Amino acid sequence: MKTAINPTRAENFPEWYQQVIAAADMAENSAVRGCMIIKPHGYGIWELIQRELDNRIKEEGVQNAYFPLLIPLSYMSKEAEHVDGFAKECAVVTHHRLEEDKENGGLKPAGELTEPYIIRPTSETIIGESFSKWINSYRDLPYKINQWANVMRWEMRPRLFLRTSEFLWQEGHNVLATAEASNKDARRHLDVYYDLFENVLAMPGICGEKTDDERFPGAIHTYTVESMMQDGKALQASTSHDLGQTFSKSANIQFQDEQGEMQLAHTTSWGLSTRVIGGVIMMHGDDDGLRLPPKIAPQQIVIIPMIKKDADPKVVMDACHDLAAKLKAKNIRVFVDEKDIKTSDKIWGWVKKGAPVRVTIGGREAENNQVEYALRTSNDKQNSTPDEFVANIDGYLTDIHDTLYNEAKAFLDNNIHDAETIFDLINFFRKKTNIGFVRMPIALLNDPKFEETCKEFSLTPRCMPFSDNGDMVIVGKSY
Protein backbone atom coordinates (compact mmCIF):
# COMPACT_ATOMS: atom_id res chain seq x y z
CA MET A 1 0.00 0.00 0.00
CA LYS A 2 1.41 3.37 -1.05
CA THR A 3 1.85 5.90 1.75
CA ALA A 4 2.66 9.62 1.75
CA ILE A 5 5.53 9.20 4.22
CA ASN A 6 8.49 6.95 3.50
CA PRO A 7 9.80 5.08 5.36
CA THR A 8 6.72 3.99 7.30
CA ARG A 9 6.60 3.84 11.09
CA ALA A 10 7.17 0.09 11.05
CA GLU A 11 10.17 0.36 8.74
CA ASN A 12 12.10 3.13 10.52
CA PHE A 13 10.30 5.07 13.24
CA PRO A 14 13.00 7.75 13.87
CA GLU A 15 13.31 8.54 10.15
CA TRP A 16 9.51 8.49 9.74
CA TYR A 17 9.35 11.13 12.48
CA GLN A 18 11.80 13.41 10.66
CA GLN A 19 9.96 12.94 7.37
CA VAL A 20 6.59 13.86 8.94
CA ILE A 21 8.04 17.15 10.19
CA ALA A 22 9.48 17.90 6.76
CA ALA A 23 6.30 16.91 4.88
CA ALA A 24 4.13 18.99 7.23
CA ASP A 25 6.55 21.93 6.82
CA MET A 26 6.79 22.39 10.60
CA ALA A 27 10.47 23.01 11.32
CA GLU A 28 14.00 22.60 10.04
CA ASN A 29 17.53 22.61 11.36
CA SER A 30 19.24 25.98 11.50
CA ALA A 31 22.81 27.07 10.78
CA VAL A 32 23.38 27.03 14.56
CA ARG A 33 24.13 23.44 15.50
CA GLY A 34 21.45 21.88 17.67
CA CYS A 35 18.97 24.71 17.14
CA MET A 36 15.85 24.66 14.99
CA ILE A 37 13.78 27.07 12.95
CA ILE A 38 10.11 26.63 13.80
CA LYS A 39 8.16 27.37 10.62
CA PRO A 40 4.66 28.93 10.57
CA HIS A 41 2.72 25.64 10.71
CA GLY A 42 4.79 24.36 13.62
CA TYR A 43 4.71 27.69 15.43
CA GLY A 44 0.96 27.95 14.87
CA ILE A 45 0.57 24.68 16.78
CA TRP A 46 2.75 26.03 19.61
CA GLU A 47 0.71 29.26 19.77
CA LEU A 48 -2.50 27.29 20.27
CA ILE A 49 -0.90 25.10 22.96
CA GLN A 50 0.31 28.31 24.62
CA ARG A 51 -3.16 29.83 24.52
CA GLU A 52 -4.83 26.77 26.01
CA LEU A 53 -2.23 26.33 28.74
CA ASP A 54 -1.93 30.04 29.52
CA ASN A 55 -5.67 30.23 30.17
CA ARG A 56 -5.43 27.30 32.56
CA ILE A 57 -2.40 28.75 34.34
CA LYS A 58 -4.15 32.07 34.92
CA GLU A 59 -7.17 30.26 36.34
CA GLU A 60 -4.78 29.03 39.06
CA GLY A 61 -4.03 32.63 40.08
CA VAL A 62 -0.65 32.74 38.32
CA GLN A 63 0.56 35.95 36.64
CA ASN A 64 2.91 36.16 33.68
CA ALA A 65 6.23 38.01 33.94
CA TYR A 66 9.61 37.95 32.23
CA PHE A 67 13.14 37.54 33.58
CA PRO A 68 16.57 37.98 31.94
CA LEU A 69 18.02 35.46 29.50
CA LEU A 70 21.47 35.85 31.10
CA ILE A 71 22.07 34.58 34.62
CA PRO A 72 25.20 35.60 36.58
CA LEU A 73 27.44 32.63 37.29
CA SER A 74 27.44 33.55 41.00
CA TYR A 75 23.65 33.01 41.14
CA MET A 76 24.00 29.49 39.79
CA SER A 77 26.88 28.75 42.15
CA LYS A 78 24.72 29.33 45.23
CA GLU A 79 22.89 26.04 44.69
CA ALA A 80 25.49 23.31 44.27
CA GLU A 81 23.17 20.41 43.38
CA HIS A 82 21.33 22.54 40.82
CA VAL A 83 24.60 23.60 39.18
CA ASP A 84 25.88 20.04 39.11
CA GLY A 85 22.67 18.92 37.40
CA PHE A 86 23.01 21.41 34.55
CA ALA A 87 26.77 22.04 34.37
CA LYS A 88 27.40 19.96 31.24
CA GLU A 89 24.48 21.60 29.41
CA CYS A 90 25.29 25.27 30.12
CA ALA A 91 26.24 27.78 27.44
CA VAL A 92 28.43 30.54 28.88
CA VAL A 93 28.84 34.17 27.77
CA THR A 94 32.34 35.44 28.58
CA HIS A 95 32.77 38.55 26.36
CA HIS A 96 30.64 41.58 25.58
CA ARG A 97 31.88 42.78 22.19
CA LEU A 98 33.62 41.82 18.94
CA GLU A 99 36.67 43.41 17.35
CA GLU A 100 38.63 42.93 14.15
CA ASP A 101 41.09 40.08 14.21
CA LYS A 102 43.98 41.71 12.39
CA GLU A 103 46.17 38.62 12.57
CA ASN A 104 43.71 36.01 11.26
CA GLY A 105 41.04 38.17 9.63
CA GLY A 106 37.37 38.33 10.53
CA LEU A 107 36.20 39.10 14.06
CA LYS A 108 37.14 37.86 17.52
CA PRO A 109 35.60 38.21 21.00
CA ALA A 110 36.85 41.12 23.05
CA GLY A 111 35.94 42.83 26.29
CA GLU A 112 36.06 39.93 28.73
CA LEU A 113 33.31 40.10 31.32
CA THR A 114 34.20 40.46 34.98
CA GLU A 115 31.71 37.71 35.73
CA PRO A 116 30.52 35.22 33.09
CA TYR A 117 26.82 34.82 32.37
CA ILE A 118 24.95 31.55 31.88
CA ILE A 119 22.32 31.51 29.11
CA ARG A 120 19.36 30.29 31.17
CA PRO A 121 18.91 26.52 31.27
CA THR A 122 16.08 27.23 33.76
CA SER A 123 15.41 30.24 35.98
CA GLU A 124 15.08 29.12 39.61
CA THR A 125 18.20 31.01 40.69
CA ILE A 126 17.53 34.39 39.07
CA ILE A 127 13.82 34.35 39.90
CA GLY A 128 14.67 33.36 43.47
CA GLU A 129 16.85 36.46 43.70
CA SER A 130 13.84 38.61 42.80
CA PHE A 131 11.56 36.73 45.20
CA SER A 132 13.95 37.52 48.05
CA LYS A 133 13.29 41.24 47.44
CA TRP A 134 9.56 41.02 46.76
CA ILE A 135 8.45 38.75 49.58
CA ASN A 136 8.55 40.06 53.14
CA SER A 137 5.37 39.00 54.91
CA TYR A 138 2.94 36.07 55.04
CA ARG A 139 0.52 38.53 53.45
CA ASP A 140 2.63 38.35 50.25
CA LEU A 141 1.99 34.61 49.93
CA PRO A 142 1.24 32.64 47.89
CA TYR A 143 3.20 34.41 45.15
CA LYS A 144 2.74 32.84 41.71
CA ILE A 145 4.71 33.75 38.59
CA ASN A 146 5.02 32.19 35.12
CA GLN A 147 7.14 33.13 32.15
CA TRP A 148 6.98 32.08 28.51
CA ALA A 149 10.56 32.04 27.33
CA ASN A 150 13.38 30.28 25.51
CA VAL A 151 16.08 28.30 27.28
CA MET A 152 19.43 26.86 26.28
CA ARG A 153 20.68 23.40 27.24
CA TRP A 154 23.58 22.29 25.07
CA GLU A 155 22.44 19.19 23.21
CA MET A 156 24.91 16.73 21.71
CA ARG A 157 22.33 14.64 19.80
CA PRO A 158 19.68 17.06 18.59
CA ARG A 159 16.34 16.02 17.12
CA LEU A 160 13.70 18.50 15.99
CA PHE A 161 11.27 19.40 18.78
CA LEU A 162 12.40 16.50 21.00
CA ARG A 163 15.92 17.62 21.82
CA THR A 164 17.32 20.95 20.66
CA SER A 165 19.89 23.18 22.32
CA GLU A 166 17.42 26.05 22.36
CA PHE A 167 13.74 25.39 22.92
CA LEU A 168 10.62 27.27 23.92
CA TRP A 169 8.69 26.64 27.11
CA GLN A 170 6.83 28.05 30.04
CA GLU A 171 8.27 27.87 33.52
CA GLY A 172 6.14 28.57 36.56
CA HIS A 173 7.65 29.54 39.92
CA ASN A 174 5.48 29.76 43.02
CA VAL A 175 6.30 30.69 46.60
CA LEU A 176 4.29 29.12 49.44
CA ALA A 177 4.33 29.43 53.21
CA THR A 178 4.40 25.76 54.24
CA ALA A 179 5.67 22.38 53.11
CA GLU A 180 2.08 21.13 52.84
CA ALA A 181 1.08 24.06 50.61
CA SER A 182 4.18 23.59 48.46
CA ASN A 183 3.52 19.92 47.84
CA LYS A 184 -0.15 20.54 47.12
CA ASP A 185 0.81 23.28 44.63
CA ALA A 186 3.26 21.01 42.77
CA ARG A 187 0.65 18.26 42.51
CA ARG A 188 -2.00 20.75 41.39
CA HIS A 189 0.06 21.99 38.45
CA LEU A 190 0.61 18.43 37.29
CA ASP A 191 -3.18 18.11 37.24
CA VAL A 192 -3.34 21.26 35.10
CA TYR A 193 -0.93 19.72 32.62
CA TYR A 194 -2.84 16.47 32.49
CA ASP A 195 -6.05 18.33 31.77
CA LEU A 196 -4.26 19.92 28.80
CA PHE A 197 -2.99 16.54 27.60
CA GLU A 198 -6.35 14.80 27.80
CA ASN A 199 -8.71 17.55 26.66
CA VAL A 200 -6.56 19.48 24.17
CA LEU A 201 -3.73 17.24 22.93
CA ALA A 202 -5.67 13.94 23.12
CA MET A 203 -2.59 12.46 24.84
CA PRO A 204 -3.12 9.89 27.58
CA GLY A 205 -0.27 9.36 30.00
CA ILE A 206 0.83 8.07 33.38
CA CYS A 207 0.99 10.55 36.25
CA GLY A 208 3.47 9.80 39.00
CA GLU A 209 6.55 10.76 40.94
CA LYS A 210 10.12 10.49 39.73
CA THR A 211 12.51 8.24 41.63
CA ASP A 212 15.29 9.83 43.68
CA ASP A 213 17.86 9.45 40.90
CA GLU A 214 15.55 10.99 38.29
CA ARG A 215 14.45 14.04 40.29
CA PHE A 216 15.05 17.59 39.09
CA PRO A 217 18.33 18.94 40.55
CA GLY A 218 17.51 20.59 43.88
CA ALA A 219 13.94 19.24 44.16
CA ILE A 220 12.59 17.13 47.01
CA HIS A 221 9.77 15.76 44.82
CA THR A 222 9.42 15.74 41.03
CA TYR A 223 6.07 14.83 39.52
CA THR A 224 5.69 13.88 35.88
CA VAL A 225 3.37 12.91 33.07
CA GLU A 226 4.94 10.07 31.08
CA SER A 227 3.45 9.41 27.64
CA MET A 228 4.01 6.40 25.40
CA MET A 229 4.95 6.95 21.78
CA GLN A 230 4.00 4.52 19.00
CA ASP A 231 7.40 2.84 19.18
CA GLY A 232 6.83 2.06 22.86
CA LYS A 233 9.30 4.65 24.19
CA ALA A 234 8.46 7.14 26.91
CA LEU A 235 8.33 10.88 26.51
CA GLN A 236 8.50 12.98 29.66
CA ALA A 237 5.73 15.35 28.60
CA SER A 238 5.83 17.78 31.54
CA THR A 239 7.13 18.01 35.10
CA SER A 240 6.22 19.80 38.31
CA HIS A 241 8.71 20.12 41.16
CA ASP A 242 8.29 20.58 44.88
CA LEU A 243 11.53 22.38 45.69
CA GLY A 244 10.93 22.61 49.42
CA GLN A 245 13.28 25.20 50.91
CA THR A 246 16.25 24.35 48.66
CA PHE A 247 16.20 27.58 46.66
CA SER A 248 14.80 29.65 49.51
CA LYS A 249 17.97 28.88 51.46
CA SER A 250 20.32 29.76 48.62
CA ALA A 251 18.37 32.91 47.58
CA ASN A 252 17.30 33.87 51.12
CA ILE A 253 13.55 33.94 50.40
CA GLN A 254 12.11 34.72 53.83
CA PHE A 255 8.85 36.08 55.19
CA GLN A 256 7.56 37.24 58.55
CA ASP A 257 4.82 34.91 59.75
CA GLU A 258 1.68 35.85 61.69
CA GLN A 259 3.57 35.61 65.00
CA GLY A 260 6.27 37.99 63.74
CA GLU A 261 8.88 35.24 63.31
CA MET A 262 11.04 35.02 60.17
CA GLN A 263 10.49 31.84 58.15
CA LEU A 264 12.08 30.36 55.05
CA ALA A 265 9.56 30.05 52.24
CA HIS A 266 8.83 26.92 50.20
CA THR A 267 8.88 27.02 46.39
CA THR A 268 7.68 25.05 43.39
CA SER A 269 8.56 25.13 39.70
CA TRP A 270 6.76 23.51 36.78
CA GLY A 271 7.27 23.50 33.03
CA LEU A 272 6.15 22.33 29.59
CA SER A 273 8.11 22.83 26.38
CA THR A 274 7.92 22.55 22.60
CA ARG A 275 8.99 18.91 22.94
CA VAL A 276 5.30 18.20 23.53
CA ILE A 277 4.82 18.90 19.80
CA GLY A 278 7.18 16.01 19.13
CA GLY A 279 4.95 13.95 21.39
CA VAL A 280 1.85 14.87 19.38
CA ILE A 281 3.62 13.78 16.18
CA MET A 282 4.85 10.46 17.56
CA MET A 283 1.64 9.59 19.37
CA HIS A 284 -0.91 10.51 16.68
CA GLY A 285 0.88 10.51 13.32
CA ASP A 286 0.28 7.83 10.71
CA ASP A 287 2.04 6.72 7.53
CA ASP A 288 0.45 9.60 5.62
CA GLY A 289 1.77 12.24 8.00
CA LEU A 290 0.60 14.38 10.87
CA ARG A 291 -2.79 13.99 12.54
CA LEU A 292 -3.61 17.01 14.67
CA PRO A 293 -6.07 17.17 17.54
CA PRO A 294 -8.54 19.88 16.43
CA LYS A 295 -7.88 22.26 19.35
CA ILE A 296 -4.24 22.75 18.27
CA ALA A 297 -4.76 22.67 14.50
CA PRO A 298 -3.95 26.09 12.98
CA GLN A 299 -6.46 25.27 10.23
CA GLN A 300 -9.25 23.09 11.61
CA ILE A 301 -11.12 23.04 8.30
CA VAL A 302 -9.44 23.38 4.91
CA ILE A 303 -11.70 24.13 1.93
CA ILE A 304 -10.26 23.14 -1.44
CA PRO A 305 -11.88 24.54 -4.60
CA MET A 306 -11.95 22.16 -7.58
CA ILE A 307 -12.30 24.30 -10.70
CA LYS A 308 -12.47 22.25 -13.88
CA LYS A 309 -12.67 23.61 -17.39
CA ASP A 310 -16.44 23.30 -17.58
CA ALA A 311 -17.06 24.96 -14.20
CA ASP A 312 -17.72 28.64 -13.47
CA PRO A 313 -14.82 29.72 -11.21
CA LYS A 314 -16.89 32.45 -9.55
CA VAL A 315 -19.69 30.06 -8.59
CA VAL A 316 -17.19 27.62 -7.06
CA MET A 317 -15.25 30.30 -5.19
CA ASP A 318 -18.43 31.95 -3.90
CA ALA A 319 -19.58 28.58 -2.53
CA CYS A 320 -16.20 28.08 -0.82
CA HIS A 321 -16.17 31.51 0.78
CA ASP A 322 -19.83 31.30 1.82
CA LEU A 323 -19.08 28.06 3.66
CA ALA A 324 -15.94 29.59 5.21
CA ALA A 325 -17.93 32.58 6.48
CA LYS A 326 -20.50 30.32 8.16
CA LEU A 327 -17.73 28.31 9.85
CA LYS A 328 -15.89 31.43 11.01
CA ALA A 329 -19.13 32.65 12.57
CA LYS A 330 -18.88 29.55 14.79
CA ASN A 331 -15.26 30.43 15.71
CA ILE A 332 -13.88 27.60 13.59
CA ARG A 333 -10.40 28.16 12.16
CA VAL A 334 -10.96 27.73 8.42
CA PHE A 335 -8.77 28.26 5.38
CA VAL A 336 -9.74 28.38 1.70
CA ASP A 337 -6.76 27.07 -0.28
CA GLU A 338 -6.67 29.11 -3.47
CA LYS A 339 -3.10 28.26 -4.45
CA ASP A 340 -2.64 27.66 -8.16
CA ILE A 341 -1.56 24.03 -7.91
CA LYS A 342 -3.18 20.66 -8.70
CA THR A 343 -6.13 19.76 -6.50
CA SER A 344 -4.63 16.35 -5.72
CA ASP A 345 -1.42 18.02 -4.51
CA LYS A 346 -3.43 20.34 -2.27
CA ILE A 347 -5.35 17.44 -0.78
CA TRP A 348 -2.22 15.42 -0.04
CA GLY A 349 -0.48 18.51 1.30
CA TRP A 350 -3.21 18.99 3.90
CA VAL A 351 -3.29 15.28 4.71
CA LYS A 352 0.42 15.46 5.54
CA LYS A 353 -0.09 18.66 7.57
CA GLY A 354 -2.74 16.93 9.64
CA ALA A 355 -5.70 19.24 8.96
CA PRO A 356 -8.59 17.66 10.91
CA VAL A 357 -11.22 18.13 8.16
CA ARG A 358 -10.84 18.64 4.41
CA VAL A 359 -13.70 19.95 2.27
CA THR A 360 -13.73 19.93 -1.54
CA ILE A 361 -16.18 21.96 -3.61
CA GLY A 362 -16.33 21.79 -7.39
CA GLY A 363 -18.80 22.98 -10.00
CA ARG A 364 -21.17 20.07 -9.44
CA GLU A 365 -21.15 20.54 -5.65
CA ALA A 366 -21.71 24.28 -5.97
CA GLU A 367 -24.66 23.83 -8.35
CA ASN A 368 -26.27 21.10 -6.21
CA ASN A 369 -25.69 22.85 -2.85
CA GLN A 370 -23.36 20.04 -1.69
CA VAL A 371 -19.94 19.68 -0.10
CA GLU A 372 -17.63 16.67 -0.05
CA TYR A 373 -15.62 16.26 3.13
CA ALA A 374 -13.24 13.85 4.85
CA LEU A 375 -12.04 13.58 8.45
CA ARG A 376 -8.29 13.07 8.88
CA THR A 377 -8.89 10.13 11.21
CA SER A 378 -10.67 8.10 8.51
CA ASN A 379 -10.10 9.87 5.14
CA ASP A 380 -13.45 8.46 3.95
CA LYS A 381 -15.24 10.88 1.62
CA GLN A 382 -18.75 11.92 2.64
CA ASN A 383 -21.34 14.36 1.32
CA SER A 384 -23.80 16.77 2.88
CA THR A 385 -25.33 20.17 2.33
CA PRO A 386 -23.25 23.14 3.53
CA ASP A 387 -25.76 23.92 6.28
CA GLU A 388 -25.73 20.32 7.54
CA PHE A 389 -21.94 20.36 7.52
CA VAL A 390 -21.82 23.58 9.55
CA ALA A 391 -24.44 22.29 11.99
CA ASN A 392 -22.45 19.08 12.57
CA ILE A 393 -18.91 20.50 12.58
CA ASP A 394 -18.51 20.62 16.37
CA GLY A 395 -19.44 16.95 16.52
CA TYR A 396 -16.94 16.06 13.78
CA LEU A 397 -14.13 17.82 15.63
CA THR A 398 -15.06 16.13 18.90
CA ASP A 399 -15.12 12.74 17.14
CA ILE A 400 -11.60 13.37 15.78
CA HIS A 401 -10.27 14.27 19.23
CA ASP A 402 -11.92 11.24 20.83
CA THR A 403 -10.68 8.89 18.10
CA LEU A 404 -7.08 10.06 18.55
CA TYR A 405 -7.29 9.81 22.33
CA ASN A 406 -8.93 6.39 22.37
CA GLU A 407 -6.42 4.94 19.90
CA ALA A 408 -3.51 6.23 22.00
CA LYS A 409 -5.09 5.11 25.29
CA ALA A 410 -5.65 1.59 23.97
CA PHE A 411 -2.03 1.46 22.77
CA LEU A 412 -0.79 2.61 26.18
CA ASP A 413 -2.94 0.16 28.12
CA ASN A 414 -1.98 -2.76 25.87
CA ASN A 415 1.74 -2.10 26.20
CA ILE A 416 2.23 -1.91 29.95
CA HIS A 417 3.63 -5.26 31.08
CA ASP A 418 3.96 -6.50 34.65
CA ALA A 419 7.16 -7.98 36.03
CA GLU A 420 7.76 -9.55 39.44
CA THR A 421 11.53 -10.01 39.24
CA ILE A 422 14.55 -8.45 37.54
CA PHE A 423 14.69 -11.54 35.35
CA ASP A 424 11.17 -10.78 34.11
CA LEU A 425 12.42 -7.30 33.18
CA ILE A 426 15.46 -8.72 31.38
CA ASN A 427 13.46 -11.33 29.51
CA PHE A 428 10.96 -8.76 28.30
CA PHE A 429 13.49 -6.31 26.84
CA ARG A 430 15.77 -9.05 25.54
CA LYS A 431 13.10 -9.87 22.96
CA LYS A 432 13.55 -7.09 20.41
CA THR A 433 9.98 -7.27 19.15
CA ASN A 434 8.66 -6.34 22.61
CA ILE A 435 7.84 -2.66 23.10
CA GLY A 436 6.34 -0.59 25.88
CA PHE A 437 6.74 -0.13 29.63
CA VAL A 438 7.36 -2.64 32.38
CA ARG A 439 5.66 -2.09 35.75
CA MET A 440 7.51 -3.75 38.61
CA PRO A 441 7.69 -3.55 42.44
CA ILE A 442 9.57 -0.47 43.65
CA ALA A 443 11.82 -2.69 45.79
CA LEU A 444 13.48 -4.05 42.64
CA LEU A 445 15.25 -0.70 42.15
CA ASN A 446 17.61 -1.90 44.92
CA ASP A 447 18.38 -5.19 43.19
CA PRO A 448 22.11 -5.28 42.30
CA LYS A 449 21.27 -6.28 38.72
CA PHE A 450 18.88 -3.38 38.09
CA GLU A 451 21.52 -0.78 37.18
CA GLU A 452 23.33 -3.28 34.97
CA THR A 453 20.05 -4.13 33.21
CA CYS A 454 19.28 -0.46 32.61
CA LYS A 455 22.67 0.07 30.98
CA GLU A 456 22.33 -3.04 28.81
CA PHE A 457 18.91 -2.12 27.42
CA SER A 458 19.05 1.71 27.72
CA LEU A 459 16.28 1.80 30.33
CA THR A 460 15.35 4.35 32.97
CA PRO A 461 12.76 4.41 35.75
CA ARG A 462 10.06 6.69 34.34
CA CYS A 463 7.87 7.22 37.41
CA MET A 464 6.13 5.72 40.40
CA PRO A 465 2.46 5.92 39.31
CA PHE A 466 0.06 7.63 41.70
CA SER A 467 -2.45 4.88 40.87
CA ASP A 468 -0.14 2.31 42.49
CA ASN A 469 0.31 4.32 45.72
CA GLY A 470 4.10 4.35 45.32
CA ASP A 471 4.41 0.55 45.44
CA MET A 472 5.32 0.12 41.77
CA VAL A 473 7.65 1.79 39.28
CA ILE A 474 7.36 2.10 35.49
CA VAL A 475 10.56 1.30 33.56
CA GLY A 476 11.18 1.80 29.87
CA LYS A 477 13.21 3.25 27.06
CA SER A 478 12.77 6.96 26.50
CA TYR A 479 13.43 10.04 24.38
Compose a concise summary of this entry:
Helices cover 36% and strands 28% of the residues. With 479 residues, it is α+β, with helices and mostly antiparallel strands.
Fold and architecture overview:
With 479 residues, the chain is an alpha+beta fold. The chain has 14 helices and 23 strands. The chain has helices at 13-23, 40-59, 73-77, 80-86, 124-134, 179-199, 246-251, 275-284, 313-328, 343-353, 363-367, 386-414, 422-430, 448-457, and strands at 27-29, 36-38, 63-64, 70-72, 91-100, 107-119, 143-152, 166-176, 206-209, 221-228, 234-244, 254-256, 262-264, 266-273, 301-306, 334-336, 357-362, 371-375, 382-384, 416-418, 437-441, 460-465, 472-476. Strands 3-7-8-14-11-10-9-22-23-21-20 form an eleven-stranded mixed sheet, sandwiched between helices. Strand 22 (460-465) and strand 23 (472-476) form a beta hairpin. Helix 2 (40-59) crosses helix 6. The mean pLDDT is 96.
Determine the structural class based on helices, strands and strand pairing: alpha+beta
**Mean residue pLDDT:** 96
- In the predicted model, the low-confidence regions spanning at least 5 consecutive residues are none
Main beta sheet strand tally, sense and closure: 11 strands, mixed
Report strand order across the widest sheet.
3-7-8-14-11-10-9-22-23-21-20
Topology diagram in text:
Elements: H1 13-23, E1 27-29, E2 36-38, H2 40-59, E3 63-64, E4 70-72, H3 73-77, H4 80-86, E5 91-100, E6 107-119, H5 124-134, E7 143-152, E8 166-176, H6 179-199, E9 206-209, E10 221-228, E11 234-244, H7 246-251, E12 254-256, E13 262-264, E14 266-273, H8 275-284, E15 301-306, H9 313-328, E16 334-336, H10 343-353, E17 357-362, H11 363-367, E18 371-375, E19 382-384, H12 386-414, E20 416-418, H13 422-430, E21 437-441, H14 448-457, E22 460-465, E23 472-476
Parallel strand pairs: 3-7, 15-16, 15-17, 20-21
Antiparallel strand pairs: 1-2, 4-6, 5-6, 7-8, 8-14, 9-10, 9-22, 10-11, 11-14, 12-13, 17-18, 18-19, 21-23, 22-23
Helix pairs in contact: 2-6, 13-14
